[in-house]
Every structure is written in C-alpha cells, then in structure tokens.
Write a structure and sequence with these properties.
The chain is an alpha/beta fold and 497 residues long. The chain has helices spanning 41-58, 63-79, 81-92, 96-113, 116-119, 155-166, 180-192, 207-215, 228-240, 263-275, 298-306, 326-341, 377-380, 396-405, 419-428, 464-470, and strands at residues 3-4, 7-9, 12-14, 21-25, 32-37, 124-129, 132-140, 143-147, 170-174, 200-202, 219-225, 244-248, 253-257, 285-291, 345-348, 367-370, 387-393, 408-409, 411-415, 433-436, 452-453, 456-457, 472-480. The chain folds into two domains: 3-250 and 451-479, Aldehyde Dehydrogenase, Chain A, domain 1 (3-Layer(aba) Sandwich); 254-407 and 411-436, 3-Layer(aba) Sandwich (Aldehyde Dehydrogenase, Chain A, domain 2). The chain is 37% helix and 22% strand. Strands 15-16-17-14-13-19-20 form a seven-stranded mixed β-sheet, with helices on both faces. A six-stranded mixed β-sheet has the order 10-9-8-11-12-22, sandwiched between helices. Pfam families: Aldedh.
Length: 497
C-alpha cells in the first residue's frame, strides 16, 4: 500500500480529509513512493490558529529554555544523521555524500539557534537625557511560515523554523510537494526533542495552500526559497498583504579563471561545483569565465567532466543522482538543444545519458559548452542541471563587467594566485557571496546567506544575525524615575519571590 503523507497540526500527525492528492515519486525510477494531500482550507486554518494560540504562551518561555530545546534537537539530528540522509536520498535521488551534506548543513544552523540568547540582546544607553535611560528589546513577531524547495529538503527547512522558534515565534512549514518525507521526519524529531505541541505545524499542497498562507492575516513573516518567477510572486503577494518576506530566487553563478591559477585545482573544483547534486542547487557554478590563456584548459575540463557519471543514491561510484522529475529533465534537454542551435559548441553532451538497470530514471550526463555568448538561452536562463557554459574574455576587468551585467547576484568565485586580482574582484563584483579559490562560497551559519539583486527579494537574509532580525521586532523603551519616589524608612525590606 502506498504511504499516505500526514499533516502535523497541534503536535499531532493526522491524516488529511482532502479529496486532492499528489504522487511523490523516486527520481531514479519514477516509481510512486507516497501520496501527498493538498490540505483543505479547514486544515490550513486549524494549523494557523493552533500556531497562533501556542504563540501566546511560547513567547513567554525563557530564552534559555528555548535554547535548550535546540540543544536537544541538534543532538537528535546528529544521532539520526545517516538515517535522515538515506531517507532524503530515496526521495530526491541525491547520492549518499550529497544527502549527508544536506543534513549536516541544516544541523549547523540548528547549532547556531542554540546561541539564540546572545542574538536576542538589545542595547542600552544610560542618561540619554537627565535621569532618562533608553534601551531596546528584541521580541518575536508571532506566526511565521516557510515554503521550501525540492533540492535541499533538510537544509532549507532547518534554515527557517529552528531560528524562528528559538526567537519565540511559532511556525507553519509548507515543504515542497515533491519531497515531503524528509520534512515530516524533521518534525517528528523536533517533537521527540520536547518541542511543545503547536510551535511547529507542517501542511502540504501546491499554489492554493501557498496562497492561503500568503493572504492569512495571522501570518506575520514568510520565508521562501525557489525559482525566480515564484520568488517574485511570493514577495509581491506577501508584501501586498503587509507581511515581512524574504524570497530567495534563482542564480547564474560565474567562476572566473585567471591564467595564473592552479590548473589542477581549477579543473577539480569546477567539475564538482558545476555537476554536483546534478547542478540542482542555487549556488552551483553554471558559468566558467576563462581569462586570457586559461581558455586553453577547456579541452582538459571536458575530459575531467566526462569521468563523472550519475547513478543511484547507494552507488559509491555515482558522481551525482538524477534530476528531480521528467519535466525537469525535459526542460534541461530543451535548453541543451537550444544552445546547439544558437551556435555554441557542445564539448560534452549528456542529454542521451543512460544508467544500467534504471532505464526510467531522470538521468542527464555532464554537459559542457564553449563559445557561448551572453545572448544565448543557455547563458541567460538558470539551467538547473549538470550543464556548464564557458565564456572567454581577455582581462579581469572584462570578466567583472560581464558578471555585473548579469541580473543575478547569488554567488561567484575567482581562482587566482594574485592577491591584488582577488582584492579587486571581491571589491568590485556586485554579487552577495564571493569565493576566492573556493568554488561555492556558502557561508557558515554565524554569517548570513547573502544573495543580491535578482537572486533575492527582501531586506534581511537567511540564518545568522540577519535571520534573527527577520523573525523579530525591536521595541525601544525610554524610562525616567524620580528620586523623590524612592521609599525610605526603617521598615523597608527586600522581599524575594
């Protein structure tokens, strides 16, 4: 019998009464592994109302106790790390190595949530005027929600609800309908960690359920990660309903290769950063910009990429897994065909890739284009597959200008042995996350994930101090007390409760 994915409302796992269900498939063979309900309006309302009711008591819980909940949670996540990774692999198709990385990066954010007390500290100035003091308090917003994508079903939910809840909010999570099982296990472990009933709710569905969250007056803040069109819709709709919104969108991440770079390091890092996780990550390197004579390495790059082959999650020889769906594969193959038609040279073509014993999987081999220009579809669009496009320029200045003209600003990197070139690049590039001899510069959670321009809609970013500010509000108090009101006399005593 096919597994029916439950809802998580009021601290209880419950079966939906919905008459609309979606199939959850294994990308490696497209077999149905579960059925997912599109939550009814009554179920959505119950989840939001329960979160609101719970908030009234949860916000009064001592910050130290909220931190202890996160300590217990991160301990359980570490204890079940490998089991979570296996579950994640089976529903996403990720290799074991990729899946373990997904889970671990989420755990690192939970570890940061255990430090919530120091991030909730306000500021104080004594005697801003005669006998008047001013100080600020950091307080939670209320009910927050998160809408998460398929490609990181552990890491991205863990970007959101632990920090929001540690800050004193309650949370409604709507995971991707393509990969709900990992999110449900995260909720189960959160309950086992001792989370009070109602601080976390998990609902399922598609656009109607998202629209319900975006329009509901009780939801105060919305966190989203996904494609550019959906991020724009989430941001515009959420803010039009007076909500605080952070919407992380698509990317076109460039790696600049200077002629003085270490060639072996360039080739090794470029292969992994472009085809790892089947290219289905917003920080993947999808454009290589070869400066000057470094273009002579493109032939060797094709040879190194050809050594990487996709395969099943438990295949130790697999470099990465399948694409998430048949539709995703069809879209990438169409873009590969457009690249050929528009005049780019296909140095390596993975569009006809097959994996032995798994003919029905969404497989796509590493693909490399050279001779790409900025007016081609394969440059302008986020491909979200194991496809790398190569451009050639003569100078670092040209490379910087090219990248700054691109509408996206998620991540970029430069490989060079020259400190001055690296300094110029990091200073002049208009991209939020920069790597120097590091291919995918995702910051650790005590910093924040800081995409810019068309890769992000909002003001405050994910995890780190910015996330705490996103999930809280600042209250400023100005206080004055009068010396004449101080009680005096022999009968004054201090009473302790």
């Amino acid at each position: 019998m096919t597994q029916l994915v439950p809802l998580f409302i009021g601290g209880e796992f419950c079966q939906s009464n919905s008459d609309e269900w979606l199939e959850v498939t294994n990308p490696a063979n497209n077999a149905v592994i579960a059925e997912l309900p599109c939550a009814t309006n009554d179920e959505m309302e119950r989840a939001i109302q329960n979160a609101h009711d719970t908030f009234l008591t949860w916000k009064e819980v001592a910050v130290s106790e909220r931190a202890r909940l996160m300590l217990r949670y991160q301990h359980l996540l570490k204890e079940h790390h490998d089991d979570l990774a296996e579950l994640l692999s089976k529903e996403t198709g990720k290799t074991t190595v990729d899946a373990k990385g997904d889970v671990w990066r989420g755990i690192e954010v939970v570890e940061q949530a255990t430090n919530i007390a120091s991030n909730m500290m306000g500021e104080t100035v004594e005697n801003v005027a005669t006998d008047i003091d001013s100080y600020s308090l950091i307080q939670p917003l209320g009910v927050c929600c998160g809408i998460t994508p398929f490609n990181f079903p552990a890491m991205i939910p863990l970007w959101m609800f632990p920090l929001a809840i540690a800050a004193g909010n309650t949370f409604v999570l709507k995971p991707s309908e393509q990969v709900p099982l990992t999110a449900m296990r995260l909720a189960e472990l959160f309950e086992q960690a001792g989370a009070p009933k109602g601080v976390l709710q998990v609902v399922h569905g598609g656009k109607p359920q998202v629209d319900y969250l975006l329009a509901h007056p009780t939801i105060k803040a919305v966190s989203f990660v996904g494609s550019v069109p959906v991020a724009q819709y989430i941001y515009q709709t959420g803010t039009s309903h007076n909500k605080r919104v952070q919407a992380f969108a698509g990317a076109k991440n460039h790696m600049v290769i200077m002629p003085d770079a270490n060639k072996n390091q360039v080739l090794s890092n470029l292969v992994g950063a472009s085809v790892g996780a089947a290219g289905q990550r917003c920080m993947a390197i999808s454009v290589a910009v070869f400066v000057g004579s470094s273009k002579e390495w493109i032939g060797e790059l094709a040879g190194e990429m050809a050594k990487v082959t996709p395969g099943a999650w438990n295949d130790d020889n697999a470099g990465y897994g399948p694409l998430i769906s048949k539709q995703a594969k069809a879209r990438v193959v169409a873009l590969i065909d457009e690249g050929k038609a528009q005049g780019a040279k296909c140095e390596l073509d993975g569009s006809q890739c097959e994996v032995d014993g798994m003919p029905d999987g969404n497989w796509l081999g590493p693909t490399l284009f050279s001779g790409v220009t900025t007016d081609m579809s394969i440059y302008q669009q986020e491909i979200f597959g194991p496809v790398l496009v190569c451009l050639e320029v003569e100078t670092l200045e040209e490379a910087i200008a090219l990248i700054n003209k691109n509408p996206y600003g998620n991540g970029t990197s430069i490989f060079t042995a020259n400190g001055a070139a690296a300094r110029k690049y990091q200073h002049e590039i208009q991209v939020g996350q920069v790597g120097i001899n590091v291919p995918i510069p995702v910051p650790l959670p005590f910093f924040s994930f800081t995409g810019w321009r068309g890769s992000f809609y909002g003001d405050l970013h994910a995890y780190g101090k910015q996330a705490v500010r996103f999930y809280t509000e600042t209250k400023t108090v100005t206080a004055r007390w009068f010396d004449g009101d101080i009680p005096t006399g022999p009968n004054m005593t201090i009473q302790l409760r």
